[in-house]
Amino acid sequence: xxxxxxxxxxxxxxxxxxxxxxxxxxxxxxxxxxxxxxxxxxxxxxxxxxxxxxxxxxxxxxxxxxxxxxxxxxxxxxxxxxxxxxxxxxxxxxxxxxxxxxxxxxxxxxxxxxxxxxxxxxxxxxxxxxxxxxxxxxxxxxxxxxxxxxxxxxxxxxxxxxxxxxxxxxxxxxxxxxxxxxxxxxxxxxxxxxxxxxxxxxxxxxxxxxxxxxxxxxxxxxxxxxxxxxxxxxxxxxxxxxxxxxxxxxxxxxxxxxxxxxxxxxxxxxxxxxxxxxxxxxxxxxxxxxxxxxxxxxxxxxxxxxxxxxxxxxxxxxxxxxxxxxxxxxxxxxxxxxxxxxxxxxxxxxxxxxxxxxxxxxxxxxxxxxxxxxxxxxxxxxxxxxxxxxxxxxxxxxxxxxxxxxxxxxxxxxxxxxxxxxxxxxxxxxxxxxxxxxxxxxxxxxxxxxxxxxxxxxxxxxxxxxxxxxxxxxxxxxxxxxxxxxxxxxxxxxxxxxxxxxxxx
Length: 505
Description:
The chain is an alpha/beta fold. The protein folds into two domains: 8-163, 3-Layer(aba) Sandwich (Rossmann fold), CATH 3.40.50; 185-492, tm_1862 like domain (pyruvate-formate lyase- activating enzyme, Alpha-Beta Horseshoe), CATH 3.80.30. The protein is built from 18 helices and 15 strands. It has helices at 26-38, 51-54, 58-68, 82-93, 106-110, 112-116, 132-142, 235-248, 265-277, 297-306, 320-326, 332-344, 362-374, 392-400, 425-443, 446-455, 459-482, 484-492; strands spanning 8-13, 45-50, 72-76, 100-104, 123-125, 152-157, 160-163, 206-209, 212-213, 231-232, 253-256, 283-290, 308-316, 348-355, 379-384. The strands form three sheets. The chain has a seven-stranded mixed sheet with strand order 2-1-3-4-5-6-7. 45% of the residues are buried.
């Protein structure tokens, strides 16, 4: 391969708005920082387009690509956005500048052959890209083959992917570059709440921060993108970023999005101590979830003093057997105590639950609902289990449901409120019923709905969220009562009513 000019770089994060997320593309911002710091010379111009924020149409993206004329286009997206990633790749490949098209992120790492097999993506960066992408760009500039650049997947012919040697994970996260916050309109990300229905914002400007990578637990539904070993930034390194966001960018709310922020409680307390000692008057939330049974009163009080107002806990199941089966092994008694402790300190606590694991019975799903109801949770999200590619769950799912129902084979269905998955229709109907039952029983309590409204900083949004949930639950029951045959057809032939695809739309 002859050398190429790689001087103008465009990053695109896809979004179909299904996942209801509005959070800065932190992974891309780290990559921009790495290109600026580690390339000699660095690209003269780097742009970031975020579909989740801009709502750009593909026509406008085509115009942006033509006007910017990038030498390299990097695309990142979730599995549910895989078709969008391919559309962006085709637009880039058809542009007059003929850029190198590189894909990365969760879906590209878990199923690189899907993106490489159609000939629109040139190369996939597998896993963490802060070391791999600068080395890839250097190789493209100098010319030569890419097979010996660690951490890549390349087209292998016949719809396959050929992996280069694996790249070791970055051991010292203090060596990460600073995220390139200047490449995005920071204030625009505070226009709406981040992540889910129960999330709220207390400050006009918010930033997502990751202080560690990796998780040692064996949850079989997780792609383990950052590995099983926890690697953490030092408290001083974390505080340096927080101070920069606070003083330079005016950020007053931090959303910590680690997979396992509280793996080391001493480290958590030290970060909290430094926040207070440095005089950072910030609000802190954990929209990605925190390990709820790995907490104690001292740590919760430290979090509260540092500004924590909102915790999500990732419970998944209220059944001890299912906890063991999925590899999470949550101590449900300790979790329930910690939820009560946090709620007693004035911290809003919400939870993620999952319904429909293979072998999970109706009674075990009821156990999950009962756990949510008896706890002191202020909010709950009941999601459907999704067999994402590259996970152990995907293998277990294929064994449990060898004859998938129609309509479940496309990645566009791989989101938490879908009615179309590779499973028997009767199973899909049961899980759908239990999901609706969970929302109805949890938010059907006047006291709980009132508490949700009172605690939510944005009262108009709180009313909108509750109304959307009640409307969708009522619509489901209306169809069950008055259109049962039509409901069955939706499951058995894979056609889904477009007006009710989310309980939180």
